[in-house]
Design a protein that fits this description.
By secondary structure, this protein is mainly beta. It has 3 helices and 38 strands. The termini are far apart.
Length: about 575
């Protein structure tokens, strides 16, 4: 018996996708996006000198699955790849939209047989907005976007299909509802016997000689199993002790039947698609046992999925990694006493020369960075000096320009304003404020510049002269805060819980007497290692990077790295 990667493409089952709502044309040998409007909705147009391949009818079931409408799974997307370098794109795998511009999938879907990363930026596409395989027989449904970068959450082992998880960043956000991943440490959703649902467009038969992909998105309910059950079932079936890796993998299913009319199983083509429990992605379809005559549904065997909660601490910072330069490192915003704002691109442990950010910023006395709507473009939250009104400065949906939206009035007396990321675990960037009386208030965001009723998270924050935070300082996938106490200038870590009712733990001392710094800034992951960092300015105007270690102790930061001098000339640093 052998292992089948459930998304490894087979040429005879590929389907052509030849453009999308942003139609693709071949200009000078390169694919470029051109706007395409149609009263009947988005249409797929073929690249020049290519043709649309007709789609054959497929079975209405995918090893016991049922047809699923797009409205029931709006976060499902299809991965497409130009395998033959000829302008033709083929369906390869499924994926989950976990943020407007982020797709969670299997690592083996975006690597070759040896585990080497494929050129997804140059030859990959994502299709969302449709339950029909590649948009239906006439390729008329859905929206296609380019992929700008790939991230592997762990060292993917192609031979063992281990650490089989990847996160794709899209060139622009998709307008569909995302699905959140399981939290780090989540055990309830993984309990044996829990009913999970998997989705996909994979093969509709286990027979490799007659199998076809599903024309319509399929779903299958499967019971979860314990690690012990999974190891016994899969290691025995394969004759390979250790093939199933607890902590990195989970398994589910009623057990293969070797009969497509009675079985319920995932198959090749389903890889990268989600295993869902209670509205969260708990697994990514990865692999299953196979024989010479069966690609899946092998008698008595279970299906294997990547355990998402294990990788959430690495995935979450990459979901919330918007910046000005469009890479995976957090950049810095600053302005002098004038009206000009500047961005400083992070090179990892240094900053590039400043660039002017369009707009006037002299009216604001507080400016912080965030990605409030999770579209992948950096936003600014700014407070007007004279009125105290708060504004969300963000990229327009219809253009590449930035627009300003008023979100709150008269925050003159607010002591501190923080945009740490997703505080309550709903996938949207939230806002915190310390009131004049020292209450720490959480403003849950709807992701569109509007907020739910604020809740009080803590009291007594008037003792802190710096309240900062953006991202996860403890490597558990939850956003934290860094605060400095007045008088002693001691620094405390405030660990996030990810809970809406009590989002933060009590502060814990991590550094003593940070009086040498007059400003602490938390732009996010500056050096690109998936851990939140701190930038601090000394009283003499030197700027330092303190790289996060992920430790909730006095070793929370590595030795400081000097980024530059003369930073006392900047009035606001975001």
């Amino acid at each position: 018996m052998r292992v089948s990667r459930h998304g490894r493409p087979v040429k005879k089952i590929r389907r052509l996708i030849a453009a999308g709502a942003a139609a693709l044309a071949v200009l000078g040998g390169a694919l470029v996006a051109t706007a395409q409007a149609d009263e009947g909705g988005p249409k797929f147009l073929p690249p020049k000198n290519s043709k649309v391949v007709s789609t054959a009818k497929a079975s209405s079931k995918i090893i016991g699955g049922t047809d699923t409408a797009f409205s029931s799974a709006p976060w499902m997307v299809q991965l497409l790849f130009e395998w033959d370098n000829d302008g033709t794109f083929y369906f390869t795998c499924g994926g989950t939209l976990v943020a407007p511009n982020k797709v969670l999938t299997a690592a083996h879907c975006v690597t070759d047989e040896n585990g080497n990363a494929l050129d997804m930026r140059g030859r990959g596409l994502v299709l969302g907005g449709t339950a029909k395989l590649v948009g239906g027989p006439d390729n008329s449904e859905g929206t296609v976007v380019n992929i700008s970068r790939s991230y592997f959450a762990g060292s993917y082992n192609a031979a063992a299909i281990d650490n089989d998880v990847a996160l794709l960043t899209l060139s622009k956000p998709l307008p569909y509802t995302p699905l959140q991943q399981a939290s780090y440490g989540d055990t309830a959703r993984y309990a044996a016997g829990t009913t999970a649902t998997t989705y996909g467009w994979g093969l509709t038969s286990s027979d490799p000689n007659s199998a076809m992909l599903a024309d319509t998105l399929q779903r299958v309910n499967q019971p979860m199993h314990s690690d012990a059950e999974c190891s016994e079932n899969l290691d025995t079936a394969l004759g390979q002790p250790g093939a199933f890796k607890p902590g990195h993998m989970v398994c589910a299913g009623k057990g293969g039947t070797s009969d497509d009319f009675t079985g319920q199983a995932t198959c090749p083509g389903d890889s990268g698609s989600p295993l869902v429990v209670s509205g969260r992605v708990v697994g990514i379809t990865s692999w299953g046992p196979a024989t010479a005559s069966e690609e899946c549904n092998v008698y008595g065997t279970y299906d294997v999925y990547t355990k998402v909660s294990t990788y959430t601490p690495a995935i979450q910072p990459r979901i919330d990694d918007a910046n000005f330069s469009g890479d995976h490192r957090a950049d810095l915003f600053a302005r002098t006493t004038g009206s000009t704002g500047y961005t400083f691109t992070s090179n990892g442990e240094s900053l590039a020369a400043r660039k002017v950010l369009a707009g006037s910023y002299s009216a604001y006395n507080t400016i912080i960075q965030t990605d409030l709507n999770r579209d992948g473009f950096e936003d600014l939250i700014a407070r007007h000096s004279s009125t105290g009104d708060m504004y969300w400065i963000h990229r327009s949906v219809s253009s590449s320009t930035y627009v300003s939206t008023k979100i709150f009035s008269n925050w003159k007396t607010v002591r501190a304003i923080v945009a740490p990321g997703d505080v309550n675990g709903d996938g949207k960037g939230d806002l915190l404020a310390v009131s004049a009386t020292g209450d720490l208030m959480v403003y849950p965001s709807f992701g569109n510049g509007k907020f739910n009723t604020p809740t009080k998270a803590a009291t007594g924050y008037q003792v802190y002269n710096q309240v900062r935070g953006h991202g996860d300082f403890t490597n558990d996938g939850k956003v934290d805060l860094i605060v400095r106490r007045g008088g002693t200038n001691d620094v405390y870590l405030v660990k996030g819980t990810g809970k809406s009712t009590a989002p933060f733990e009590a502060p814990t001392l991590v550094r003593s007497n940070w009086s040498a710094y007059n400003l602490i800034v938390t732009p996010g992951d500056v050096n690109g290692d998936s851990k939140a960092d701190v930038i601090a300015r000394s009283t003499g105007g030197d700027l330092y990077l303190l790289k996060g270690t992920g430790k909730a102790t006095s070793e929370i930061f590595a030795t400081q790295v000097k980024l530059g001098s003369g930073w006392n000339s900047y009035y606001t640093i975001g």
